[in-house]
Amino acid sequence: QVRLMESGGGSVQAGGSLRLSCTASANMWRVTVMGWFRQAPGRERELVATITDGITNYGAAVKSRFTVSKVSGTDNIFLQMNSLKSDDTGVYYCYSRGLFRSWETSEREYWGQGTQVTVSM
């Protein structure tokens, strides 16, 4: 099994920046997609950004402000968040989907426990 561990959350003023990290406890045999989701109080979990074979995808609310990247040869990813707004406040979750071992036939999904990001006016 894979455990995803997020770090880098915290409190920042609007307009500031934060960098989140996600570290995987083990490399998967094949990763289909990794990325970040977030959930604000009273709202559903939403897509922030994903990365697949170097191709990135962003939620409309964060496009042009956030950047997702992946360390080559590992299942570790980052989320650089710039020009933060109060609406970016929430718990940010690292996500991964793929095959843990070569003999598996069904992909599995993994989630981290989340890291809190709070943006104040």
Can you offer a commentary on this structure?
- With 121 residues, the protein is mainly beta.
- The chain is built from no helices and eleven strands.
- The strands form two sheets. Strands 2, 4, 5, 6, 9, 10 and 11 form a seven-stranded mixed sheet that branches. Strands 1-3-8-7 form a four-stranded antiparallel sheet, with no helix packed on it.
- Strand 5 and strand 6 form a beta hairpin.
- It is elongated.
Jot down its keywords:
four-stranded antiparallel β-sheet; about 0% helix; single chain; mainly beta
Topology of this structure?
Blueprint (H helix, E strand, L loop, with lengths): L3 E4 L2 E4 L4 E7 L5 E10 L6 E7 L2 E4 L7 E5 L6 E5 L8 E10 L8 E4 L3 E6 L1
Parallel strand pairs: 2-11
Antiparallel strand pairs: 1-3, 3-8, 4-5, 4-9, 5-6, 7-8, 9-10, 9-11
| Low-pLDDT sequence parts | none
Q: Which secondary-structure class do the elements indicate?
A: mainly beta
* Approximate helicity band: under 10%
Q: Count helical runs.
A: 0
Q: What is the rounded distance between the termini?
A: 40 Å
Gyration radius (Cα, Å) is 14 Å
How would you spell out the order of helices and strands? EEEEEEEEEEE
The total of beta strands comes to 11
What spatial form do the alpha-carbon principal axes imply?
A: elongated
In what range is the share of β-strand residues? Answer: over 45%
Largest sheet at a glance?
A: 7 strands, mixed
Q: Overall pLDDT, averaged? A: 95
